[in-house]
Amino acid sequence: MTANNLSIGGPRPSGLVQRQSTLFVQTSREVSGEDPSLNAQLLTQAGFINRLMAGVFTYLPLGNRVLSKIEGIIRSEMLSLGASEITMPAMHPKEIWEQTGRWDTLDILFRLKGQGDRDLALGPTHEEVITPLMAGFIHSYKQLPTAAFQIQTKFRNEARAKSGLLRGREFRMKDLYSFHLDQADLDGYYEKVADAYRRIFERCGIGHLTYYTAASGGAFSKYSHEFQTITPHGEDTIYCIPNTKIAINKEILDDAEAIKEILPAGISVQDLEEKKAIEVGNIFKLGTRFSEACKLSVSNATGGKQTVIMGCYGLGPSRVMGTIVECLSDGKTAPINTMVWPAEVAPYPVHIVSLARTIDEQQSGADQLVNRLASAGVDSLYDDRMEVRAGAKFADSDLFGIPVRVVVSQKAAEKGGVEVLIRGNNQSEIMSEDSLFKLIIGR
Amino acid sequence: MTANNLSIGGPRPSGLVQRQSTLFVQTSREVSGEDPSLNAQLLTQAGFINRLMAGVFTYLPLGNRVLSKIEGIIRSEMLSLGASEITMPAMHPKEIWEQTGRWDTLDILFRLKGQGDRDLALGPTHEEVITPLMAGFIHSYKQLPTAAFQIQTKFRNEARAKSGLLRGREFRMKDLYSFHLDQADLDGYYEKVADAYRRIFERCGIGHLTYYTAASGGAFSKYSHEFQTITPHGEDTIYCIPNTKIAINKEILDDAEAIKEILPAGISVQDLEEKKAIEVGNIFKLGTRFSEACKLSVSNATGGKQTVIMGCYGLGPSRVMGTIVECLSDGKTAPINTMVWPAEVAPYPVHIVSLARTIDEQQSGADQLVNRLASAGVDSLYDDRMEVRAGAKFADSDLFGIPVRVVVSQKAAEKGGVEVLIRGNNQSEIMSEDSLFKLIIGR
Question: What ipTM does this complex have?
């Protein structure tokens, strides 16, 4: 065995160059009125997504990259918590849903028939799978706490699918489940997950708009928590405590006892600020609701049997993608309202636009720049189309919303560099390639 | 905007350390007889997968990592072809399947009802989605050729789901679709995809067992091709041309004309070697079968309309995972038949087994080694369990089949290093940590 066939620990791979000349997707100036939500309109116009039917979308090349970057952020934060990644099936036998009593009560469950007329369901959530799974592996208190998550396509038979990626019938979901011996351990873990969620929304660029929102709990816990991102078109209403990132939802507002418990001294209901918001995540103490139904118990230190205590934590990457568009799009750079992607979730961190009119000019100019970026490990979207007018290229670039646009042209070269526009600003500036590299990769 | 919030082009991330003490999965000495296939047995025993029902599995932490590594290899080779990655929905409206006439004829199609009694299907393949999608974007011959692929969960209502990951009702699939102006262009691309497939199977460690196998084509093309990996338990039979990696399948064997065309001069049917095999991929020239049904045409250079010519190319990551187990497991290292993962698809490239009996010993020994590996960017699985006997640790290590096992113990330290076993060999050797690093990362 040689180092070669182990092929690990090698140098950082070079960056990807996506030439627009080979991208099949076209932007469009107008989109149909089938889904009037801002995120559906802007993502469709830019060619990031395509609607197959209500609540069901294809992620096109640029949109697929955004989604996978959001999922990458979520994955890294879940792994940092020490949770193991798994992938559970989307297709479930009826029996597991009967065991918890939800086959008959969960109206958004897609039901279907398999071979031999067998009743099946498509998973909108996975307590029914993970709890028996854990019961097969966990027998002693020494194996607790533990946690597992997946990032997966889920299905909900929504009565009204709407709002683009915000409420889909088929959507992406990260679901984390944690398992504990006692309440105190769950309580501590719950706070750690809340912190991880805050880091995720921060990295996705919506941290400053996202409120930790108390909601009603269940039989086991008084409260659960939603992460609500404020935006005028949100379908939820939350009540924010001034000068904090904390809020309560409608249920809590109507619960005098909870209000008294949650609001800090000196703050009354009248002080709360009512805001529209999108629920981008929720965390929930399940207690023994599912572990009892699925017989998940462990032997404890004194030799007795103890039912395992559970928590579940949802976060939808596709909904986060829609929320970023709803919240961060603006008309600052372009004359129209356009998407603005935070660097870490942008389909590419840099959009190189060549205005070369000959192949020679392009090869000695923009081609060199994208290759140099690739060598430094930076991916780029490269508008190398020779037959498209500069105006149309700029219009496409505005629609894509990539945070840094670099125009490579004879005019810019004569002024000593390339023309760099940081999206969100309304003014571009000429800088040398070295300054551009310093800006992008810090060296 | 600062370099910080662009956060790209930074140093290579450090390697992941998975401590077995925090892994919820347990290996098992025996498994149920529900699925007697070798891959189901070995993967279940090692805790890589868990069966939810026939043909439907959960990928547990180690299995999930193998699957995602296989998918990473496939993705990189598809991107090298210049194809764009997208993600199409699993859930389809009936209408798109009626347009191609397959709603009534495809018996493995899962059918279900959505809101308003709407007929829906779960996608076993995606010609019905991608062809109309392309028709919305592609209008001129200048946009051809182009290609898009996805790696996605697919569904087939198989009459008999069996053989572990080899024939599932829910499974992972990479499907690539290419679009061309004329037959010659499709033919050339088809060969390039075949080469990419050969590289994929090579990197997955089954290249030497995989035959490029002629199968019958369709209305448009005489032949399609399967990639068949030979193994005694394969459910297909192929007929191999001696001293080549080329074969024909049963259909072709029964077709005298095809035989004459395909077999090289001097080779007759009697010379062919009959072998059992698993189909790990197939490539197919669709011609205009779907582009006609879905009205995908372009204007050509002379201003006329021309129907687009298509190819489709399937490769199942989950089936490849099962095939690797079927083909590469052996009893060379361990007294029992165990999995042996090629380095590039192993859940972790290295398994560090600590035999320390005190925390101090572990901290000054194996902990240091895994940290040094992580700093070098190498992921490792780390058996840090203090309460487990050495024998049980070795048995687990055999079941996991990670290519390099490194035992850190006082005994090995006294002999001047660590004890390294390369799986597939039957003898371990003592080497210094520096030699181990040289072996693993070549420096």
Answer: 0.95
